[in-house]
Amino acid sequence: MIAISTIIGVLPNRVGEILAFGGPATVLLSFAVVGVVAVAVMEGISEMVITWPIPNPLVEFVRRFVDRDFAVVICVAYWYTWAITFAALISTAGAIAKYWNEGKAAETLVYALCPLLVFFINFNTVKASDGFNINCSFHKLTSRQLFGYIELFGGILKLLIYFMIFVLMLCLRSGAGWIPKPDSMEYITNGFQYRCQVADRKPISTLIGINLAIYPFLGVESVTMTAFEAKNTAELKMPARNISFIVLSVYMVSIVSMLLNVSWTDPLLMIYYGQWTFGDSPTHCPANSPRAENGMRDDVTHLVPVIALDRHDIPYLGGVINACLLYSAFSAANSALFVASRTLYGLGSSIQRDEKSPILRWLSTLANVDSNGVPQRAIFGSMIFGWIPFLSLVDEKGTDKMQDILQSIGTTSCIIVWASQALAFLRYHWWLRKHHTYLKNDYIQFDRWSRTGHMSWLEAAQPWLAWFALVASLTILLVFASAGLWSSNHEARKQLTVKALDQYLGPGLLLVMFIGLKIVKRRWWVRLGDWNQLRDTLRDMDDLVVPNVEEEGVIRQRTSLERHSGSDAMRLSDMESGEHTSR
């Protein structure tokens, strides 16, 4: 359920933002496209993680099948994605709270209390198993204990919240007996639209919508974070194979019900990047007209189901749903901190304590744990962006843009992680196919072409599905991000130029980091060599699988990034050496 808690946050927030400039059809198409990409990405990830339920799998897959230096970049990118997502969800929670009080008191209270509560939950409930060895790189943090129960019931509650929203939206549409004034408008039939302040053509607004729809799907891959705790492969198959389909189904059903009850021209919808002012016409943009300040603050979030309920004058119910969505944002922030801290913990654990570089020695301390096995420093480090929500309290130009920039970097970083997983699967698949005839006896489980049973629902469509995931991820990242610049409206294009640059800042920084590592380490990509090299890699991956067998009340553990023989540790010290990767 941690994946559900991580993914399902405040979906109506992004739905309303896309609806306001693209119409209902743009919302549906945007989420459908990104959902299909997420499914394609997870098909490859699920097959590999079911084969090897290891800790820190997203980094390890890249390290073994793509490039060691690229794996470091992916680790940093994934940590940043969730560290900034934690801050973004706290910001969203504060905006939701302003439904009851548009002053700064409620907002400030949320920004102060939410991080403290989330920190307390993560700090006191996620503990390592008995027999914790500080030299291990990633240990079984028993989310089955209190944290696990919090995530379990939290995930179920969030699914119930969205089911309740779905039922309420259908009741509004059908005109149930208790509805004061059922709406006769067919809002969902408005199809594709565009606001002249954002785009001058429907296709452009659709591409912008697709780019925005990425954010609600972040975390679909987070099911891998606790894969190594599965008692057996069968226990892991269900969540790994189904999570992307479940999320896509929940999203599409919920979105359709919301679009039935709110017009795309509703002034209470969230304003995309402050591109228009309260009361502006969506279809009439005078040439070269100056962009005025908003008549109402565009950071006041009015969520789509809340707007629908309030438009029908149903007392208190809008506030109840708003409170439920506030909890949803808080729960997602809690899960985001968990994923971020565990990623940072894995990075610190992969570094030797006796490194010559003081920076590397300091990074290694991120793997420190207290007597209960809680990675305190990793949790503190993952809260580094906790100050960002407070920028919303400052009425200064540029503070909101700083938040947008940092969040944009996080979104694009996760898309890069998706692309890296598709690339890792493609190289894994190609390497197996190259030595197909050797996959017998002890290696028969890796024979994708003759084994019975399926590790993913669409396994037969591989590797074409992985190619689609890779190309689609890169297209969204490199092409759709610039869609706002394609408008012929000079004012719209000028304002969205900064937004487009924000989108490319994340990939640019990661590229600089990757090039820097390559210059320093002087290593090539992983060479997909002969059968002996493939066999060694498969054995190494098997050695990383942490046994989850209880013997005499003691859980036996092995490290995730270091073979128990100590001969194949993933250490940044390795990256200091000039050796070339041979596997």
TrEMBL record:
Amino acid permease/ SLC12A domain segment(s): 1-524
Transmembrane segments: 18-42, 70-96, 108-126, 146-172, 245-264, 316-340, 378-394, 406-426, 464-484, 504-520
Molecular function GO labels: amino acid transmembrane transporter activity
Coiled coil: none
Chief location of this protein within or outside the cell: membrane
Entry's localization field: Membrane
Region described as Disordered: spans on this chain: 561-583
Signal peptide residue numbers: none
One cellular component (GO) term of this entry: membrane
Name of the protein this chain belongs to: Amino acid/polyamine transporter I
